[in-house]
Structures are given as structure tokens and as C-alpha cells.
TrEMBL record:
Keyword Ribonucleoprotein: no
Domain EfeO-type cupredoxin-like: 41-130
One Pfam family linked to the record: Cupredoxin_1
Region (Disordered): 29-48
Signal peptide: 1-25
Protein name: Cupredoxin domain-containing protein
Amino acid sequence: MRKNAKALMVVVTAAALISVAGCGASGTGGYGVSSSPPSAASSSAPQSGTATITIKDFGYQGPVSVSPGAKITVKNEDAQAHTVTSDDGKTFDAAADGGGGTAQFTAPTTPGSYAYHCAYHSNMHGMLVVK
Ligand SMILES: [Cu+2]
């Protein structure tokens, strides 16, 4: 009897872990504690918390929209250094060296449209949409 109780706890703990790990994907729900434990958990869930803005030829390329608080990587494929600087100058500011340099910043947690520019090249503009 003790063995059974312990086994049940293991199953419940595993189910809890899986439901936490899969919070980004809309699950089918209904694990329930039955004779068959959840198995073959899908490992193909996309990471919605990250995004990449690529800079090339003095222009920003994607993403148009990200989720709140997403970790955004800036990848600079130009030879010159560029930045992704919010137009208000304080929400985010990331500088990436030329020649493949990268930088990271965290997207705002408040949904909205955030215009940004390059601090070095005033003709470079982009828009980050958080939703
Ligand atoms: Cu620039």
C-alpha cells in the first residue's frame, strides 16, 4: 500500500512538471490520474519567448511582433556597428558590433508598438510590436 501511494505521488509530480513545461502550448488537457501515465510528451513546442532582429544593408528585418518580455537577439550582418534603440531612449537599447556582432535585450512587458532607430544612422527605423 505504501508503494502504491509513492507511485501515485511520482505520477502526480510528473504531470505537474509537464503542465508547467508545456504552458506555452495549448494542451489537450485531461491528464487525470489513471492507469496510463502521460508519456511521449511532445518536445516540439516552439519557444515563444525569444525572437531575433537581423540588421542587414542598413535595415532591420523581422520580427514584427513578439510576446511581452521576450528575449530578443539583435544580429548585425553589416560591417558597421548598429543599435536597436527605442525612440524614447530608455525602454531598450542594444548595440551590436559589425561583422556578425550580436546583442540582446528584453522586450517591454506592456503590449504596444515601440518605434526604434539606430543611434548611429538616423535613417534606420524599425517597429517592435508587443502583444
Ligand atoms: Cu546603424
